[in-house]
Amino acid sequence: MKATVEKLDKHQVLLEIEVEAPRVQKALDQAYRRLVKQVNIPGFRKGKAPRFILERYIGKEPIYNEAAEIVIPPAYEEAVAEHKLEPIDRPEVEIVKVEEGEPLIFKARVEVKPEVHLGTYKGLEVERPEVRVTEEDIDAYLKNLQERNATLKIIEDEPTVAGDIVSIDFKGTVDGEPYPGLEGNNYPLELGAGTFVPGFEEQLVGARVNEERTVTVTFPADYHQKDLAGKEAIFQVTIRGIKRKELAPLDDEFAKDVSECETLAELRQDIRRRLEERRRQEIDAAVRRAVVEKAVAAATVDLPEVMVKRRIETRIRELERNLQLRKITLEEFLNATGKNIDELEQDFRPEAEKDVKTELVLEAIARAENIEATEEELRDEIEKMARITRQDPAELRQNLDYLSFLKYDIMIKKTIDFLVEQSVAVPPREGGDGETGESRETGETAATEG
């Protein structure tokens, strides 16, 4: 087989491939055997008509086309491998010549990964703060443990205070009209948790069981439901029940109840160890992100639109899966946000472009440094996955798509390891928070905003 490559533009190449005559003849024989079984020819049992009879009955062109479909895909793959091309889309194929006893010639126009011009990626300076855990961090963690292990006392004759968990019936109106979704019955709400619209929970402090209150709030200007953003809403709220957290005292008994520690002092030491390990992981992750971002920023590459679009589609599919978990359709989400699919794609474009560039740059660094997955690393990962999924490692190896993904994943991780090893650690900037861009969260959970 012969193959030549012509570069058409920054992303496209044209392959001209010539497949030798004996290989074409073999494909023609195979094509005849396939087609003769599909055609009923008078006077012959199905599949038994000679080739010249079949050609007289259906013509030569179907046989030549079938032979081309047999020959072209593997020949194309061989040419791609020979010239070390990395196609990013399906090729456009044009058959130039296919005849009995002659080589088959075809052209394949295909978009390939672009050339990446690497900048500096060794010796990158990244901040690496010290692992610090303060007594205040440990106190905050303990406070969170108290909250999570609190008992709830039913309150009947006292007004609500911040931190109480109330059960409410509520119905909201906007512009004097009921609004879908702004209502609920026996809805549990922790006062002060910031779950509802700002100002809602504060207006229920001091209320008693069965008391009705009128709550007036204004939705934030950047509220996710565009038709509510900046709007005033009036809620009729009835307190149906009040529960108050009772925190256990911080003593040795508390330590025994919530952990395997015997004393509060031991628990504090265990918390320090956990927080230090978490902080170490946060710093490591931040350093890895920083070196990748700097290496990517230093490189230049013209992003192929097909790769960007594919990444946008992936992000939309991920969004759909997450919405399905909340029993929301993509259409409902778009209606709620006041966007159409084109606007959603534009929202995803910047991150999609960043993803594609990062992928291309890391691949280019791996090539430049000859970084790839070793057979030992591949075996270890397959055995690890086999233990998790309770599958035979040999079966996993038979899955070529999974094997390809695993090799790629190992290569990318090793490339980032390489960037970190080659980087230069510097102390955080004076006056900075020493967090390498990360926020510190010492409690087990963080309040979420609805």
From TrEMBL:
GO terms, biological process: 'de novo' cotranslational protein folding; cell division; protein transport; protein unfolding
GO MF terms, alphabetically ordered: peptidyl-prolyl cis-trans isomerase activity; protein folding chaperone; ribosome binding
Gene Ontology CC terms: cytoplasm
Annotated source species: Neomoorella stamsii
Ranges for region Disordered: 426-450
Catalytic reactions of this protein: [protein]-peptidylproline (omega=180) = [protein]-peptidylproline (omega=0)
Domain notes: Consists of 3 domains; the N-terminus binds the ribosome, the middle domain has PPIase activity, while the C-terminus has intrinsic chaperone activity on its own.
InterPro entries: PPIase_dom_sf, PPIase_FKBP_dom, Trig_fac, Trigger_fac_C, Trigger_fac_C_sf, Trigger_fac_ribosome-bd_bac, Trigger_fac_ribosome-bd_sf, Trigger_fact/SurA_dom_sf
Coiled coil: 309-336, 361-391
Domain PPIase FKBP-type: 163-243
Protein name: Trigger factor
Stored HAMAP family: Trigger_factor_Tig (MF_00303)
Family listed: Belongs to the FKBP-type PPIase family. Tig subfamily.
Primary location recorded for the protein, binned into one broad class: cytoplasm
Compartmental location: Cytoplasm
